[in-house]
Design goal:
Chain lengths: 320, 244
């Protein structure tokens, strides 16, 4: 019996969500009395990979090859399913991301494994294998049994508070038969905002709505985000109007976020927007209209003009 | 061009969610069902491609009989025929293997669906279908153009997008702005009544099942801070909420 954790590397480092998956995996392994292995695909130093030990891993398998790139989802999923097979892994865990969703889906398909995503707690394993997952875009939860022999679960962000130790993991190279990996596609162009905090990974998010009145007025919001080290986001009308890029759109049909802190500036709080942010730990709402529905979902509220309030918040953050 | 568009039938996104029978069943009373919002984008792009390139567009739903109004709507929007596989769509693997079993020997060039359904949000059905059929899958796709056997597509990645080229056949999970939602016209609605809708018995078994539902704990009261004293919020976030 073994637990396998699929992780992702960005710029040579584990993504924060992957460290959360490692920590979660170590808790699951302890609970069911199994060993845990971490699979890391891509380029990173052994020192960085050994850091998986800080979060409960003892062993990291590292696969790195020329044609093993993130756009080659079929190759990634093949490495994952083959590794799971060779380790006889019965539980495969990842953090949710757009790449992980695709890789986990294909690997689960190959292994005929039941797959449950958006898991929000440790599994219940005393009688069967049950996980609690978020459904209806955060409006409800479902306790779900996985009945297949191999079980795949993808966890949401911030499921468990991370605990760090000084332990290091051993790192082993995983030899990959790259000849068997088919190239399913060719990348023509990658357009990526650089130097900004990744929205799905962010612990702090500052978001703007139509109350910002136009793309030229975004500076005070960007200033607060910069002072906090936060990612920036927006509501659907704002991205529909092209005031902000589409990948910043948070809501039912956009990115779903689960940061520690979500600050909404000039967003009224339509139910479709709330669906994308209701997993946030703490929500702050700044709106001119005291009747804005978002205040009902908020922990802290300020009724006032965003252009008056934002600079005050930025100044207070800088004074910390 | 032979296109298959898979649609889900889901509660309207503004629905109030509640459960019954000791929280073991979703309460359908008063709920308005719609074509999954992401599936609706996939359908719209499928209809556009069929209109410009010719061929056929089949719409498929894994669901119970109460999904038929949504399937008829898809026919009214422009699908040529429809298939409903008579199973409750609560398990991703079951839905995917029903789609794959139906599609496997029919030679579809494109299998389109939404990036995820808005009820269970797993976002994995397209990937499992691709694996079961042994063809590439991509998601979330925001642009799709075809030239001969080559598809040029853009998918959203964290913080941006990636333009890719891939050969058909493909399975794609779609999202805006791949196309604008289409509203059926009167002629479409009339013709949809007589378009074929086949009902097929399911052939696979669910690997997961839902034992119980739960609603989130109600949110406590919102603490209000005056705009004049806005800066004090930051101290509260640090010392009281402990998020800074």
């Amino acid at each position: 019996m073994s637990v396998l954790v699929y992780t992702e590397l960005a710029d040579g480092q584990f993504k924060k969500s992957s460290l959360e998956a490692i920590f979660y995996g170590s808790k699951v392994a302890a609970q069911v009395g199994a060993s845990m292995t971490v699979l890391a695909i891509g380029s990173a130093s052994d020192d960085e990979l050994a850091k998986a030990g800080n979060f409960g891993a003892t062993k990291v398998l590292h696969a790195n090859a020329q044609n093993l790139t993130s756009e080659n989802i079929m190759a990634y999923s093949k490495v994952l399913s083959e590794t799971a097979k060779s380790l006889s892994a019965k539980i495969v865990i990842s953090a949710k991301s757009s790449l992980a969703d695709a890789v986990m889906a294909r690997a689960a398909g190959a292994l005929k494994a039941g797959l449950v995503g958006n898991v929000v707690e440790l599994p219940e394993t005393s009688n069967g294998f049950k996980v609690k997952r978020s459904i209806f875009t955060g409006k409800a939860f479902a306790e779900t049994s996985i009945n297949s022999e191999v079980k795949f679960i993808a966890i949401k962000k911030n499921v468990l508070p991370l605990e760090e130790s000084a332990n290091a993991a051993t790192v082993e190279k995983l030899s990959v038969d790259t000849g068997s990996l088919t190239e399913s596609s060719k990348v023509l162009e990658t357009i990526k905002a650089s130097g900004t905090v990744s929205l799905p990974e962010a612990d702090l998010v500052v978001s703007g709505g139509r109350g910002m009145k136009g793309p030229e007025n975004w500076q005070p919001l960007l200033d607060l985000a910069e002072a906090l080290g936060a990612a920036t986001a927006c509501s659907k009308p704002v991205s529909d109007l092209d005031w902000r890029p589409h990948h910043e759109h948070v809501g039912q049909t956009g990115v779903k976020v689960a940061p520690n802190l979500y600050i909404a500036c000039g967003i009224s709080g339509a139910i479709q927007h709330l669906a994308g942010v209701n997993s946030s730990k703490v929500i702050v709402v700044i709106n001119k209209d005291p009747e804005a529905p978002f205040f009902k979902a908020a922990d802290y509220g300020i009724v006032g003009d965003v252009f008056d309030v934002l600079p005050k918040l930025t100044a207070a953050v800088k004074a910390l | 061009m032979k296109i298959l568009v898979c649609i889900s039938s889901v509660p309207d996104t503004t629905s109030k969610i509640s459960f019954e029978e000791n929280n073991t069943k979703f309460s359908k009373g008063g709920i308005q069902y719609i074509i999954g919002p992401y599936d609706d984008y996939a359908l719209a792009r499928g209809v556009e491609l069929r209109e410009t390139l010719g061929g056929t567009l089949t719409v498929l739903n894994v669901g119970l009989a109460d999904a038929e109004p949504q399937i008829r709507k898809a026919l009214a929007i422009g699908a040529d025929d429809a298939v409903r596989i008579d199973a409750e769509p609560t398990d991703s693997f079951l839905v995917a293997s029903e789609i794959a079993n139906y599609a496997k020997d029919k030679g579809f060039d494109l299998i389109l669906m939404g990036r995820e359904t808005t009820d269970y949000n797993s976002g994995v059905v397209h990937g499992i279908v691709g694996e079961l059929l042994g063809i590439p899958s991509f998601s979330p796709v925001m642009e799709l153009k075809l030239e001969g056997n080559t598809a040029t597509l853009a998918r959203e990645i964290e913080g941006g997008k990636e333009k890719l080229e891939a050969s058909l056949p493909l399975v794609l999970g779609c999202q805006e702005p791949i196309a604008e939602w289409k509203i059926p016209n009167m002629r479409g609605i009339m013709s949809a009544r007589t378009k074929p809708l086949a009902v097929i018995a399911p052939s696979s078994e669910a690997l997961t099942n839902i034992d119980k539902f739960e609603l989130p704990a109600p949110k406590g009261a919102c603490k209000m801070i005056s705009a004049e004293d806005a800066g004090s919020l930051i101290k509260l976030l640090q010392t009281e909420a402990k998020v800074l």
